[in-house]
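ESCALATION

Customer reports they have been waiting on this structure for their group meeting. Please prioritize. Original submission:
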Amino acid sequence: MSVALPLALVLEIPASVHAQMLGHAIAGLPDEACGLFAGEFGGDRVERFFPMSNTACSSRIYQLDSAEIMGVERVADDSGLAVIGVMHSHTHTTNYPSPTDVADAARFDPFGVWRFIIVSLKHADPSLRCYRILGDAVAEEPVVLIRGRAGISSGAVE
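Update from on-call: job pushed to the front of the queue and completed.
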């Protein structure tokens, strides 16, 4: 059975949030780093990043702490925001969803609503890409970095 992913929109990320995501990924080495990000409900702009602990303590997989998830949800809600996705790093591979990432997405986001940002640390310069995942279908979503009101980059962001 084939499933249809939402049309590719553009995810806007302020440069400061982008820097937080990359910094958290690097600080997490040698393990994968992870966190949640929030924006307006149904929106396409990241307003806030919430770095979290990788309870798997692994360089190959990540696991979010359930108590931290509840805390992030509460803070986002109190700020008038909604969690719109998860970020994690790949320490040794490119930033494309692994079979584990796809299986996790199917389990935690069965409707394909969340965005999945992956930061690759495979090369000296980290890069960030965003995906929507529904079932076993994976679609890249362009990313635009925002400095003030102007976008500065799209696609894979380095």
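Sent to customer with the following note: The chain has one domain: 13-151.
Escalation resolved.
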